[in-house]
Prior knowledge:
The protein has nine helices and no strands. By secondary structure, the protein is mainly α. It has a single domain (2-173), classed as RNA polymerase sigma factor, region 2, helix turn helix motif (Rna Polymerase Sigma Factor, Chain: A, Orthogonal Bundle), CATH 1.10.1740. The radius of gyration is 17 Å and the shape is elongated. 27% of the residues are buried.
Amino acid sequence: MEDLLKEFKSGNEKAFIKIMNIYKEEVFRYMYLLSGNRETAEELTQETFVKVYFKAKTLKTDNLKGWIFAIARNIARKEYNKRKLKKIFPLSDIKNLKKASFDEISSDKILINELLKEIPEKYKTPLLMKEIEGLTIENISKILKKPIGTIKSYIFRGKSLLKDRYKTMMEVKK
């Protein structure tokens, strides 16, 4: 991986393609979870890798995945501000979605999940990064530029809010 990273930093196109093939599905899932729309997720994933390609020479870390996700998050945030996207993801399909590939996710397979509509982004984003993309607390901390304790707190609070909303929803159904 070190050689691939060196080649990538020097502008080698084949190294970029290898890196894109390694991370494109994870970035797509992340974008899909944030946007709730396949086409938007595909566009944002493409935009992420265009930016990754052109910023290769500015890469100053060995944490390539964290760097790529920081770019993806900034692009998603910009898109959110531009379109005011609803950030949603399905709780019921979360384990299947983690295993799903770029081509397997379809709109009819993923339903809007009411539980997450009201969860603030500051809790939802680190929760997605940890539980769906499998990033470490340390990487999430670097990407979001927040202290580790804050990230742990956000994830805990996000889970607590989900549990509370779930309990409330189940009581209403009774």
